[in-house]
């Protein structure tokens, strides 16, 4: 049995980043968080991307014609590059069911939120920067 070296419990990590981190947004009585892996942007231990071992998120790709599914498997702590899985999907609502099935394998409670975020990213019109 191999134990992961250098990992801290989720509750300890949450206590460290709860009040201050670079992606924290405080506006009056509301507090939001914008880190990768936080789908709902709520600042809670359940939703944060810092403390979850299996992070998952949908991001718009740089070129604007595709959507990237970011998946952190939580395995192989010694090889961070192989820990992350990025898949590119074209901006089409046909891919929504495929993404929902991928998410159900790792974090089934977030499948609905991921599909909503994917549909929003697909319907957003990209602005071409022509000079």
TrEMBL record:
One of the Pfam families matching this protein, by short name: Ribosomal_L28e
Domain of life from the UniProt record: Eukaryota
Domain Ribosomal eL28/Mak16: 12-122
Gene3D superfamilies assigned: 3.30.390.110
Name the UniProt record assigns to this protein: Ribosomal eL28/Mak16 domain-containing protein
Source organism of the structure: Babesia microti (strain RI)
């Amino acid at each position: 049995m191999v134990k992961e070296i250098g990992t801290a419990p989720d509750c300890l990590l949450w206590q460290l980043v709860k009040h201050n981190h670079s992606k924290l947004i405080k506006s009056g009585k509301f507090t939001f968080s914008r880190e990768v892996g936080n789908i709902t942007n709520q600042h809670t231990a359940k939703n944060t991307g810092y403390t979850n071992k299996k992070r998952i998120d949908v991001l718009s790709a740089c070129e604007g014609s595709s959507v990237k599914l970011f998946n952190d498997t939580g395995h192989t702590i010694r090889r961070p590059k192989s820990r992350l899985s990025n898949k590119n999907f074209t901006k089409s609502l046909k891919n929504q069911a495929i993404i929902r099935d991928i998410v159900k394998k790792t974090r089934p409670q977030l499948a609905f939120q991921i599909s909503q975020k994917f549909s929003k990213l697909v319907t957003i019109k990209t602005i071409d920067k022509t000079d």
